[in-house]
From TrEMBL:
Its cofactor is Mn(2+). Residues 224-315 form the Peptidase M20 dimerisation domain. One of its GO terms (biological process) is auxin metabolic process. It comes from Perilla frutescens var. hirtella (Perilla citriodora). Keywords: Hydrolase, Manganese, Metal-binding, Signal. Mn(2+) binds at C138, H140, E176, H200, H403. This is Peptidase M20/M25/M40 family protein.
Length: 447
């Protein structure tokens, strides 16, 4: 018996055995509204749920920092191989891009970030980080597990759903400051892609709920490092020194006035100095001080204005104190992140799909924050949509927030993220395939 004969038989057997799983009508008109709840049931089924839990725990034990996600990337590629999903690798060092479907338009992308943070896990549990000083404290291990879960669902069901077009799976490195998304975008992974969806787990919103909004949701963000040089000497004889600590203190105070006095109070901006290193002894004025910080704004215009003024204030305020100062805006190669803005049409799409899956009461309004996401590099290039998946189970108490050493992922949220990503992509293809039928020339040549 050729494989082409027994594969459908096996498939029928599987369908029989797996009843009472919901069945789908092949009529795309009817099935479209059913897809989200059907996919959620699949994602909650032991087969897919336990698969995602296994992946997430395996990744949690081996956290890797930005552009060093070698084992993470290998694990992803092994899983894609097992599912029979073709992919491109390497992109941006460790990035992987998989393709499900015909290889023809429309193309819709779903994305997960892969990197961990340089911090020590304080949670004692069976799958605690095995790497000292590194931890998945932002939930990117869960994001990868969700995207592989979505891939599994889509790969197994895209034919029954009559999906035309291609789902692009984006596994990106270095979200935490390294701008992995920028490198992947610059490598051309979004060529011919019409839309991209990204998500983040959230300790704030309840399990079974999601949060998002149209327009800007997260700020543009940049980092800077300042070196203020003076002349060191005896702390009791300041007249023979040039004190960089006093100069730096005035610089910090002046920088705060950029936000409080120069910015429109209705145009949110932030400057924070998070690092200040100077001197070693109580009775010595040091030669220099090193400071570092971040600045944020909700429009690129305000962001660039803030950058310009930071440079001026630092150098001129240092000069007031007879010090020299330099400002470096890309310390450790940290690129500026654009504003993360959600596309209006994709917001409508999200509300429909998430509403069909969870009910409209479970779609919460996301209040914009001054946090930043490098998903913004994707959403800057093509229509993008970034949303939050709730993890909070109120009966189990509050969860530590991201970047805390006590951060925990509620694994019960994995099916929601997987089913949403899969449903957003599937519904997008069903909605858009007819509009591109006449323009099939733009298919990806590598497929
Ligand atoms: Zn983070
Ligand atoms: Zn994150």
């Amino acid at each position: 018996m050729s494989p082409f004969t027994w594969i459908p038989l096996l498939f029928n057997l599987f369908t029989l055995l797996s009843s009472p799983q919901p069945t789908l009508s092949v009529d795309p008109f009817v099935s479209k509204a059913q897809i989200p709840s059907y996919f959620l049931n699949l994602a909650k089924s032991p087969e897919v749920f336990e698969y995602m839990v296994r992946i997430r725990r395996a990744l949690h034990e081996i956290p890797e920092l930005g552009f060093e996600e070698f084992e993470t990337s290998k694990l992803i590629r092994n899983e894609l191989d097992q599912m029979g999903i073709p992919y491109k690798f390497p992109i941006a060092v460790t990035g992987v891009v998989g393709y499900i479907g015909s290889g023809n338009p429309p193309f819709v992308a779903i994305r997960a970030d892969m990197d961990a943070l340089a911090m020590q896990e304080a949670v004692e549990w069976e799958h605690k980080s095995r790497v000292p000083g590194k931890m998945h404290a932002c939930g990117h291990d869960a994001h990868v597990a969700m995207l592989l879960g979505a891939a599994k669902i889509l790969q197994e069901h895209h034919r029954d759903l009559d999906l035309e077009g291609t789902v692009v799976l984006v596994f990106q490195p270095a979200e935490e400051g390294g701008g992995g998304a920028k490198k992947m975008r610059d490598a051309g992974i979004l060529e011919n892609v019409d839309a991209i969806f990204g998500l983040h787990v959230s300790s704030r919103f309840p399990l079974g709920a999601v949060a998002a909004r149209s327009g800007p949701v997260l700020a543009a963000s940049g980092f800077f490092q300042v070196i203020v040089s003076g002349k060191g000497g005896h702390a009791a004889i300041p007249q023979h020194t040039i004190d960089p600590i006093l100069a730096s203190s005035n610089i910090i105070v002046s920088l705060q006035q950029l936000v409080s006095r120069e910015a429109d109070p209705l145009d949110s901006q932030v400057i924070t100095i998070g690092k200040f290193v100077g001197g070693h002894a109580f009775n010595v004025i040091p030669d220099y001080v090193t400071m570092g910080g971040t600045f944020r704004a909700f429009t690129m215009e305000s962001f660039m204005q803030l950058k310009h003024r930071i440079e001026q204030v630092v150098t001129l305020q240092a000069a007031v104190h007879q010090c020299n100062a330099s400002v470096d805006f890309s310390p450790d190669e940290k690129p500026f992140y654009p504003v993360t803005a959600n596309d209006k049409e994709l917001h409508r799409h999200f509300q429909k799909v998430a509403g069909d899956m969870l009910g409209s009461a479970n779609i919460k309004d996301f209040r914009p924050t001054m946090g930043a996401e490098d998903f913004s590099f994707f959403a800057e290039a093509i229509p993008g949509y970034f949303y939050y998946v709730g993890m909070l189970n109120e009966t189990e108490g509050a969860l530590a927030s991201g970047h805390s050493p006590f951060f925990k992922v509620n694994e019960a949220a994995l099916p929601y993220g997987a089913a949403l990503q899969a449903s957003l992509a599937a519904a997008y293809l069903l909605e858009h395939h007819s509009s591109v039928k006449t323009n099939k020339k733009s298919s990806h040549d590598e497929l």
